[in-house]
Amino acid sequence: MTLTITRNAKPQPAPGYKLFRALNWGEGVLNREASVGTELYGTSTFAYVPVYVIETDSFSSVNNASLYDRSKGDMENIWKLQPQDGRTLNENFNSIVFQGNAASLMWTGDPAMTWQAARVWYAGSQLQAGGIFSATEEIFQVRCALPGDAVKKLRPMRKVQTFRRADFQKSHIDYPWLITKYRVAFMRPKPDTMSDTFNGLIRYVPQQCLDPQDFKFASSQKQPSAFYVPVQWCISV
């Protein structure tokens, strides 16, 4: 008698989607979004790859921000994503939620409002540089200008798989394209040195293209139909 052992297959992206790695800063043709303060990069800053939204005609993670909502349990769910290593809430969130406007991966929108007190956190729409994400196998031609380039023309793009509230229940181990590591770019030992740790911590965050069915888009006049990433910023894995 032959015993056959069947192992559970690893989860896969949604049909029509496949996994990619986003370019790191300083790698290939990646441009950095101009709105991030250069003074922050004097030591370190979070490392992101901007995505494009047709409705705002922008790669700006600030203009394309969505909202985490405390009343819907979002902050508690982000906390539950963190490793159970004895670190406090403050140790985990002080470095990734900025008190004020648009100087980090998440921000309160009010310089007088701490992340502990804020009802909502703004979340820039972006990918983590060097991180894994899921996007369409199909390529779309989208007319836009890349960051740092004023020329608008048709550019090959992929649609990014969005994050739904139900995805909070998933793990980084099984779904690294939905629960991503918070990545940091350092100036030392050389510019664009990438790291998954900051102040000795590994942190996990939702994939920051939040599905507008579940998360309010910060611009009350706009509603994104999709988040696009240029094909040349995607490395197949």
Identify the notable features of this structure and list them briefly:
globular; 17 strands; mainly beta; 5% helix; 237 residues; four-stranded mixed β-sheet
Descriptive report:
- With 237 residues, this protein is mainly β.
- It has one domain (17-33, 40-236).
- The chain has helices at 74-80, 89-93; strands at 17-22, 44-46, 48-50, 66-69, 97-98, 106-107, 120-123, 126-128, 132-136, 140-144, 153-159, 179-181, 184-186, 193-195, 204-206, 228-230, 234-236.
- It has a four-stranded mixed β-sheet with strand order 4-7-6-5, with no helix packed on it. A three-stranded antiparallel β-sheet has the order 9-1-17, with no helix packed on it.
- Strand 13 and strand 14 form a beta hairpin.
- The termini are far apart.
SSE order and pairing:
Elements: E1 17-22, E2 44-46, E3 48-50, E4 66-69, H1 74-80, H2 89-93, E5 97-98, E6 106-107, E7 120-123, E8 126-128, E9 132-136, E10 140-144, E11 153-159, E12 179-181, E13 184-186, E14 193-195, E15 204-206, E16 228-230, E17 234-236
Parallel strand pairs: 5-6
Antiparallel strand pairs: 1-9, 1-17, 2-13, 3-8, 4-7, 6-7, 10-11, 11-16, 12-15, 13-14
